[in-house]
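Input/output pair, single chain:
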Amino acid sequence: MIQEKKKKIREEVLKKLENHKEEERLHKSSKIAKKLFLLKEFLKAKTVLFYLSFDGEVDTLRMIRDTIKQGKKVAVPVILREKREIFPSLLKDLDAELKIGPYGVLHPKEEYIRPIPPEIIDLVIVPGLAFDEAGNRLGRGMGYYDRFLSRLQKDVPTVGLAFDFQVIDDFPPLEPHDLSVSKVLFA
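Output:
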């Protein structure tokens, strides 16, 4: 029953992301970026792990570029498909160091993979297909982020980014492996 509800929500949100006009996506992403850059957790952070947006998600690429310009360290996930895990890698140049990787997601080129210990991450920007305002999160169903977040120190803030139509009231019950985020920023 829970799995069916999750599947239905995923399908509905993916369709809305697909039909979301690019101009609107970028406009809303800019509003979300402004909210993120004003968060005290962001202002205090020295190292931020960002997901690399794709498939109509909130645009993190501009946020990454701006965060690097602010002098903060940025890490991005390296996907280990065979282990179904991710680990953080330091990113210095968004334009030169990435290629299309597993699942069609941008990914560091081999020569630019610079693993960093999760302990130095001060803030994690977490993807999700759907959230509720309490921070409950529904991902794409493969568990990469739930497994990664479970290994982080409990006091590391996690922030989900979403468009308004991705924040839903009728959220499915959480399962034991589902992890929430500290905050959800949306526009």
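The beta strands are 47-49, 73-80, 85-91, 98-100, 106-108, 123-126, 130-131, 137-138, 158-162, 183-186. The chain has one domain: 2-186.
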